[in-house]
């Protein structure tokens, strides 16, 4: 998944008019501007081994690319690299007179549609958006997922089916857990039919449920579960604790709270565990970051949790999992701490 970040936008210009427009854009948002040696000005970076090579390097190193010039040039340069709409960066093309801003690649997942609209607004240009949901003034399941930082099983298939249903005027419902109301309220839900009670569904062709829950009640229509990543896990363990044990205990702790494993957002521990292979493998398997905190940072919250003099003597703080979960969740903890076989796991939820 690509999320457009202003600080990781590469801009390419090939003509004097393009340089003028690039300088205008650079004054409005942080971009890295590339051009040829003969057009080089202060603040610009020269192409390295030519325009095509520089653009292709940027394709793998930036969240978004802006080309000032002909659409065909961008297409020919990037065509060999285009791979996956959920991973490719956003690509936007602007004519050098700033009349049109074209969302060329990764409109939803990469954020090219949003970037094109933003740039068009700044330039007083026309945004050119061609994705079916957008031109029909509807939301899209993949956009909703990225706005919520959510995951789902068989995501690609679900996106294809649900978006096609939306643009075909099918009745697609949208339901969410009460605790996610604030998150969902900021999302684009055009085209979806709001559902407030899973036990009393309106007439629907399909349903998308936004939830952290493991299980949903039986539903009479095709449905998909969209799971926002909100759950964090603070973990303390003995040195060389095996990955299978950590994975099994984490799964049990999530199940005890009836939480879908896809809801996991991050795993945290003490800095001394930054090289702990079982924890590193666990985070990799769950596809979440592994964050560590210093003993001093954890010790500030040690008083909130049962402390062990042995742990304090060993790592410098009397508790690891609780303070780590507290820091990751800003104090929003879930359930009791699991303590078993030298492992402690504390869950929290971060909105």
UniProtKB/TrEMBL annotation:
Q: Which UniProt keywords apply?
A: Hydrolase
Presence of keyword Hydrolase:
yes
**GO MF terms held by the record:** cobalt-precorrin-5A acetaldehyde-lyase activity
Q: Which GO terms describe its biological process?
A: cobalamin biosynthetic process
The record's EC number reads 3.7.1.12
Q: Which domain of life is it from?
A: Bacteria
Signal sequence coordinates? none
Q: Has UniProt tagged this entry with the keyword Nucleotide-binding?
A: no
- NCBIfam families according to UniProt: PRK05788.1-1
Q: What is this protein called?
A: Cobalamin biosynthesis protein CbiG
Species name for this entry?
A: Citrobacter freundii
């Amino acid at each position: 998944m690509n999320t457009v970040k202003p600080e990781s936008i590469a801009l390419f210009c090939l003509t004097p008019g393009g340089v003028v427009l690039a300088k205008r854009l650079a004054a409005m948002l942080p971009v890295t501007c590339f051009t040829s040696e003969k057009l080089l000005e202060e603040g610009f970076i020269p192409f390295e081994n030519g325009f095509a090579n520089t653009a292709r390097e940027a394709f793998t190193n930036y969240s978004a690319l802006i080309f000032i010039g002909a659409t065909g040039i961008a297409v020919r340069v990037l065509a060999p690299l285009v791979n996956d709409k959920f991973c490719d960066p956003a690509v936007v093309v602007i004519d050098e007179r700033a009349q049109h801003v074209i969302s060329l690649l990764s409109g939803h997942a990469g954020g090219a549609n949003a970037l094109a609209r933003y740039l068009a607004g700044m330039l007083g240009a026309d945004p050119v958006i061609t994705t079916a949901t957008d031109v029909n003034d509807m939301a899209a399941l993949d956009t909703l997922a990225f706005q919520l930082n959510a995951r789902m099983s068989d995501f690609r298939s679900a996106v294809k089916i649900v978006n096609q249903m939306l643009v075909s005027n099918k009745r697609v419902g949208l339901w969410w857990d009460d605790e996610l109301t604030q998150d969902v309220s900021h999302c684009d839900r055009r085209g979806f039919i709001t559902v407030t009670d899973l036990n009393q569904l309106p007439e629907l062709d399909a349903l998308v449920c936004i939830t952290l829950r493991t299980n949903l009640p039986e539903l009479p229509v095709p449905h998909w579960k969209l799971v926002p990543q909100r759950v964090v896990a603070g973990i303390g363990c003995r040195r060389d604790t095996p990955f299978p044990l950590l994975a099994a205990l984490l799964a049990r702790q999530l199940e005890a709270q009836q939480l879908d494993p896809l809801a996991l957002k991050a795993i945290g521990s003490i800095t001394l565990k930054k090289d702990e292979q079982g924890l590193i493998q666990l985070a990799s398997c769950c596809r979440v970051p592994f964050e560590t905190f210093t003993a001093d940072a954890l010790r500030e919250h040690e008083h909130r949790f049962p402390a062990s003099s042995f742990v304090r003597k060993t790592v410098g703080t009397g508790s690891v999992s609780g303070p780590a979960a507290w820091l990751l969740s800003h104090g929003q903890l879930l359930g009791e701490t699991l303590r078993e076989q030298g492992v402690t796991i504390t869950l929290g939820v971060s909105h």
